[in-house]
Amino acid sequence: MEHRLERSFAGGCFREFIALQGIDRAVVLASQAFTALIPLLLLTSAWSPADDRDLVSDGIIRRFQLTGGAADAVRQLFASPGGGATGVLSGFLLFFSGVSLTRRMQRMYQQAWRLEATSGVGRALNSAFGLTVLVLGIGLLYLARTLVGWLPADEALVTPLSVLVSVVGSFLMWSTVPWLLLDRRIPWRRLVPTAALASACSSIYGVASSIYMPRQLESYSERFGLFGVTLALIGWLVGLALILVATTAVGSELDRTDAPWARRLRRALHAERAAPPAGAVPPESTVLAEPLPVALEPGRAGPERPV
Q1: Which long-range contacts (CB under 8 A, 24 or more apart) does 286-295 make?
Q2: Under DSSP, is residue 120 helix (H, G, I), strand (E, B) or coil?
Q3: CA distance 1 to 73
Q4: What is the pTM of this model?
Q5: 33-71 tens-digit pLDDT
Q6: For 290, which DSSP code?
Q7: Which site among 18, 27, 160, 296 is 20 to 30 Å from 46 CA-CA?
Q8: Measured in whole angstroms, how far is the alpha carbon of residue 272 from the centre of its chain?
């Protein structure tokens, strides 16, 4: 039973998740994302018009429906004087934190898809494009959800439409970002299952977080103040990072497995594997079934065979 489980698709996904050091990597990605998120939000506040300085904090308050002390703590956390020096400093912090985040994501994708790291200007350009798509994708996704919320329609129609916009936007983002970070060495169609899983899981997580996050933010802000709000936001990002790492492990295992249903799915998506790309790394589990024969020295007889 245990042997069959290890050789199954679920066992392969679990082994891939362990090989990616899923939990540790998710914590690191979440911390790096938070380091990049704060400068981005401060920069947005600094560049907003004078009467919209609380644009970011109001967006978070509306997203999680916060009231009372939790709402005040969020406003205090993202308060910005709006000076030019603050905008420039936030811009530098955003750039370096974003580059570090994309490099960590790039190493994760390369390990999952068995690709070696490349060098040269192309890698730097693809990383920069990946960071740009990630930032613009998050911003456009937030804008689309906001516009859907302003529609003069019943809430029973607005909520499913908002979820649909999130799924489509997340799918486009999580199919483009890995494609760029992998230096376009993996065809886009082979990344479709990973993007579909990531978008579906992140959308479900978004709906679930709208239920539990308000209570958590209020509880943490009452107990720990600003530190509690920061802790709650990092915990929320850890959940997103776990989804990203887990779906990457499942998608890469789906691309490699020889299960009949997986081959049929790949044929339906026209995502069959071609010859190994340049720089491909063979899986670590590849071993020789039998040892290679040892070359005999001249004049030396081979092993005697039983008659």
Answers
A1: none
A2: coil
A3: 52
A4: 0.79
A5: 888 777 776 666 666 655 555 666 777 777 777 777 778
A6: S
A7: 27
A8: 24
